[in-house]
Amino acid sequence: MQVALSAGTRKEGEVIRARRWSWTRALGALLIVACAAACGSSDDDSTGGGEPEPGPTAAPTPGPTATPEPTASPAPAGPPALRLSEVAADLSSPLYAVSPPGDPRLFVVEQTGTIRVFVDGELRAEPFLDVTPLVRFGGERGLLGLAFHPSYATNGRFVINYTADPDGETVVAEYVVSEDDPNRAKPDEVARFLTIEQPFGNHNGGMVEFGPDGLLYVGMGDGGAAADPLGAGQDPQSKLGAMLRIDVDTHPVPPDGNLEGADPDVWAIGLRNPWRFSFDRATGDLYIADVGQDLFEEVHVQAAGSGAGNYGWNVMEGLHCFDPPEDCDTTGLLLPAVEYGRDLGCSVTGGYVYRGDAIPDLRGWYLYGDFCSNRVWAMRWEAGEVLEHHEITAEIDPDGVLGGISSFGQDADGEIYVLSLNGAIHRIDAD
Ligand SMILES: [Ca+2]
Question: Which pLDDT does position 122 carry in this prediction?
């Protein structure tokens, strides 16, 4: 069922890595991480990644530079067979779907500035919220994120993230549901947490989500252009290129545990454009998919309660030095769990660890994809290790219905959806 993890043209240095994935596909990402630890940060895969060749009369003997055998891991089984079921087809640039805790409805963010709501499986014509007049839409700008308060059922509070018209600054603001209609929000914001100037039109981040600690996490891109010209990723005083964490009840007073010596809202630095991130509902582990520059897309996994720090950009892009391009100082940098090259896509879209009931064998698998290639992967991560990692595109989307994977979504039951910027939403079901 496994499809090849290589396609198209590859840059030198990626060839061997891709080949390694093909013969140890289930543990490929783990091996990349192992190499990162052993080989430092440079792209040094050429020393250890050839095809294993059995000797003529004896069992295969690893050469002096061979990758260690992963003998301790159980045989990989792969995720269960999956398929896509169309939920909607004609939304306006949908890029997020979420439900309040325990709520049977599904809310969908349209980039143009509206939040739509499915009630009993039917998409209501009237939006839950329409902030179109406030939003600058286009490219990476627009209404980008939505997070329901953990106590939404009783307080009706939710947070949105949008790029404002006309200047394109990032706004993170709180709204509240109306008293007389649960499918309509009050039109005006009730609190403004953040207004952050954006020097360029791209890399606005956009994701907002409440963590298991009840605090609001806000993913901020590095401000845009290319290669981080502002140095925002490594600047702890900048809210750009960072994961912010705020207490919506005390802001601007920060919660305990944000990054020491940094801007009070900054929890972690070193991000380029963390377009989508999510917390594992069962473990609290944080999965951050950070969009890469020219060569590597990456997913960081931050174990619950482990604090945070520096995710590397722009010293590193994925597991590789970026600035400087060689012999960069990787001291203290957090390395991604997995990365992939331009042969497999160009813009990673983070997803979710499945914790629903409908597909028991999928529990514990993190699903994510790529906006450009519409490829989808399934990964199991535990205690700092990638246990399995499979591309599942051919199995889950044999007809190629995905049209620009803009986001994944998760409902209150833990079922997972894939959103395509072309207007479609598909639920992931057992095949
Ligand atoms: Ca990184």
Answer: 96
When pLDDT is cut at 50, 70 and 90, the band that residue 30 belongs to is: very low
34: pLDDT strictly greater than 90: no
CA of 146 to the centre of ligand 1 (A): 24
**Residue 9 vs residues 6, 83, 144: alpha-carbon distances, Å:** 9, 29, 32
Distance from chain centroid for Cα 291: 8
329 Cα–ligand 1 center, Å: 14
CA of 430 to the centre of ligand 1 (A): 33
Dist. CA 286 → ligand 1 center (Å): 14
* Distance (Å, whole) CA 247 – CA 62: 53
Residue 107 CA to residue 143 CA, distance in Å, equals 13
- pLDDT single digits (tens) 176-217: 999 999 999 999 999 999 999 999 999 999 999 999 999 999
Pull the structure tokens for residue 16. 């061997």
* Ligand 1 centroid – CA 300 distance (Å): 7
103 Cα: distance to centroid of ligand 1 (angstroms): 34
CA 371 – ligand 1 centroid, Å: 18
- pTM exceeds 0.70 for this model: yes
Q: Hey, what domains does the chain have and what are their CATH numbers?
A: 14-51+73-430 (2.120.10.30)
CA–centroid distance, 56 to ligand 1, in Å, is: 43
C-alpha to C-alpha distance for 401 and 403, rounded to whole angstroms: 6
CA of 313 to the centre of ligand 1 (A): 5
Strands 425-430, 82-88: pairing is antiparallel
**Token pair 């709180």: residue:** 174
94-98 and 405-410: which strand pairing? parallel
The DSSP call for residue 163 is E
Planar angle of CA 329, 285, 95, nearest 5 degrees: 95
pLDDT at 36: 34
Q: What angle do CA 139, 288, 279 make, to 5 degrees?
A: 115
Mean pLDDT of the chain: 86
| Residue 117 CA, ligand 1 centroid: distance in Å | 34
Please tell me the predicted confidence (pLDDT) of residue 308.
83
- State the DSSP code for 64: T
**Structure confidence by residue, pLDDT tens digits, 341-382:** 999 999 999 999 999 999 999 999 999 999 999 999 999 999
Q: Within 13 Å, how many C-alpha atoms sit on residue 64's CB side?
A: 0
